[in-house]
Structure formats: C-alpha cells, structure tokens
Fold this sequence. Notes:
five-stranded parallel β-sheet; 17 strands; six-stranded antiparallel β-barrel; alpha/beta
Amino acid sequence: MKTEDLKDKRIAVLLSGGVDSAVVVHELAQQGLQPDCFYIKIGPEEEEEWDCTSEEDMEMATAVARKYGCKLEIVDCHREYWSQVTRYTMDKVRAGLTPNPDVMCNRLIKFGAFHEKRGHDYDLIATGHYAQTELDEQGRKWLVTSPDPVKDQTDFLAQIYDWQLKKALFPIGHYMKDEVRVIAEREHLVNAKRKDSQGICFLGKINYNDYIRRFLGEQPGDVIELETGRCIGQHRGLWFHTIGQRKGMGFGGGPWFVVKKDVEKNILYVSHGYDPETAYKQDFSVHDFHYLTPLLEGESLPHRITFKIRHTPGYLPALLEETDEGFIVHADAPIHGVAPGQFCVIYDEHHHRCFGSAEIGI
Length: 362
C-alpha cells in the first residue's frame, strides 16, 4: 500500500521481539504513523523446559514499542494455539501425513485468534513477514513474493483467508534481510543483532519430536526395506518420520531414505542409498486448493506454474492439470521428498504472484 493509503488507518503491529517486526514499527513511524503494538503470548506453561524465550521476547518488544512511543499490549493466545494448531498437527501426523504447523499458525493465530481478541478493532494488521501485496485492476489484493528468495515467506502465508489477506500489511516485504539488519543497526534497535528464531513457530527450544511425543507417545513398528522386504529394525512411531527423511534415522548399514508409510500396519518403508530413485516423484495430486484471492467467474489457475513443497529459496516449474478431485502437478523434473499432507504452494510462471496452496494427496 502507498503511504497515503495508511494515513487514516488504524494499524496493529504484531511485535515478536525479533528484528523484523521491530523494523516494521520503525518503517511505520517513518511515515508519521503511530501503530499500536501487540505481543502474542503463546508457550507451554506447565514445565520450565517448555517455556521458551518469551521473557526475553517481551523485554525486546517492550523496548521497541517504548522507543517509538507506541502502546504495547500482551495478548494471550496460549489456549488457542495448543487447541487449534496442535490439534491440526497431531491429527495429521497420526494419519501418517506431514503437516506444517507454521502455515496454520498464521491462519489460526496471528491472523485468526488475535483478530478475534483485538485485531477486529483495527483496519490493518502489520507483521514482519517477507512478503508483499499488490492490487489488480479490479481492486483485488494479491499476495506476491519478496525480492529476498531465501527469506520469502509467502509459502507460510498461503493458507490465510482472503479477508485476512485484505487486512494484512507487510512493511518490510520489499527489503532484503541484510537491508533490514542495516536499518536496525542504524536506528540502534535493541534487537539489531539478535539471531533469527529457528524451528516451529512458538515452540522455541522445544524439540519437534518431543512435542509430538507429548501428545501421541510412542508406537513401535517394523522398518522394512522397500525393495527387498527385509526388516532392518524398529521405529518408535510413524509420526517421528517424514517422507524423504535421511538424517536422524538411527538404523545401521545406511544411508536410508524414508519412502513410504503404511499407517494401518504401522510399517515404515525405507530405501537404501544416498539418492535412491524411490525418493523422487514427478507427478502428484493435490486436493482442497485454498485460493488466497478468489478467482472471478471464468478465471482459472494458469496451466504453467511454479511451486514449492517446502521452505526453500527455489521455485520449481511444472504444468498444472485440473481434475474432478483437484489438481495434478506435473513437475518438469523429479522432486525429492514429496510427502502426503505437505502443502504445495502454487505461484505464477514467474514466481511473482502466489495463488494459494493445496495439500498433497496420498
């Protein structure tokens, strides 16, 4: 949005304690705006080791808000996260699928639960995502990619609703990450040199497998070599493994690749070698396509697209075939680790406009 479009808008900034959202506040202040800041408090409170870096995050957020004379309010979305996002994650892994909690966190928490509690009082909700938006001739708002291919986060936003996209504002989306760091250091922001957070959204230092084990426990079963039918060991639960996984397997005589799961029989199938053919797929189906911006009557997704199935800098070219059940993605080349349950994020041929995403089928 242009500067003049923001003058009469009530803006809420989701301030995380990290450098990106801090620079968001700076950018808006530079335009003469004084947004209200909100820190979304989420984190397991039952055990000390499950409590992440939230105290330090809040200190950083408080310092940034104070520097720019903005109000800071803490919004507790703990219950919503652990019921909605965790339920989604556990339902998927229990079914042998590969979920993405970060994607659903944006839909259900940052632009969902927060909106229900406080965001509904604001015209726009600003975040530190590396993404941009643009308006077309009909006035429709589209999600478009950031110029920084490594930091671009449109894939994490590809499941938000169209009404959430209409309210979303990404003030640093046109920057490269290095430029954001330069601004933060120039403005002496308290978190200018703070490292980017890693891992699952809001889990902090919690190990992902420990997170799953807490809710699903363990369910041992056989690990079988797909080509020979030979049992090479035991797994502790199918939900601790994902299609395409090679590291952290713990089986001798490797390397081993996870290539298939049989949920009914609780069998994990693996292939041997550094790059087995069974680890690749070129054609796969997707279902329940979620359109970020609704298409007009007579419009359809382009035949020639680019896509992502995981958070990587590259965009993969493909042909998109529409079927009665959804779409089939025909990639130009075989893709490693195509896992059912993952989101396939669809872009135009020039990976500029993000149309939305769909779940990869079994």
